Amino acid sequence: MKLLNDNKGYITGILIMVMIIPIMFLLITIIEQENHYINKTVENIQDNKLTIVTNDFQREIPLLTRKSMNNLTLSVIINRKPLVNATEELITDINYKLKEKEVFYEKNMGCIISCNVTDIKTSKTNPFQLEVSYKIDSKFREDSNISQGKKIYVELVDDEYPVYDPFAILKADTALSNDIVYYNQITQLENSGVYDNAISGCVIKPCPYTNYEEHGNNNTTILNCINNHYYHESHDGLCIFCRLENKTSCLDYGIETFVIPTGIVEKAPVSIDHVLLNDTEGQYMGQVHILDNNTILYLDNGHKNKYGL
Ligand SMILES: [Zn+2]
Ligand SMILES: [Zn+2]
């Protein structure tokens, strides 16, 4: 009987063991899944944080670009010396500023970022915009990382960091105050004397009358444009980089502004900057166009039509 009892106990023990083993396996599986889920969640949070920090960093690039443009263009008009390779100098300056930002991001966000501008050109469709290409790699100390190459468009216009136009300063004998004042005869063509003390602007501001023919609608429009020294898109005009390098012609989509003469005659060199300041026989004559007692322009038919004058 004792033997039987013992046997029963033994069998019961085995039965219990047989039932417990699958339960334990089940528990282990559940715990592992839970752990896996927690790890995944941590990974997702890290990834999201990295994406946010990386995007924040990239949002700094347009302002840094405008600050660099402001520096670079200001230095050229102050030193009156053209740059040899304007885009290269701009890229170097922006990348220097990006390195400072990288240090800040690592210190404050624990995020290791490496970002470099690889190329800059004027936009093919909007000369008041720069096309900036860059590469960025970012990671938190050991884990997840983001790596991407991108192209963005940066507006050249910033009230706080204006872009200066060195074209007239480099091409002609000029004085620089708020505007540019021209001294001596700036062309060899007849009646060039009408440009003694002529003025043009030195900050690049796109004209708000984007339908250019509207300039001719009334005198208020064209006078407002002239008095503010606005700039216009132009296929023959020079882009900002060619202006910085003191070139005479430019293959890019460029810009132009009026140079306001001081004397009235019937015909004189055309009052458009890239025509008037073209020192390799690109200058030509235009007819007088009187806007009011103090303001006149000399325009050829092409520019007259363009501005509806
Ligand atoms: Zn205008
Ligand atoms: Zn150009």
TrEMBL record:
**UniProt key word Transmembrane helix:** yes
Annotated TM spans:
12-31
Query: What are the record keywords, sorted?
Result: Membrane, Transmembrane, Transmembrane helix
Q: Which domain of life is it from?
A: Archaea
Q: What protein name does the entry list?
A: Conserved hypothetical membrane-spanning protein
UniProt source species: Methanosphaera stadtmanae (strain ATCC 43021 / DSM 3091 / JCM 11832 / MCB-3)
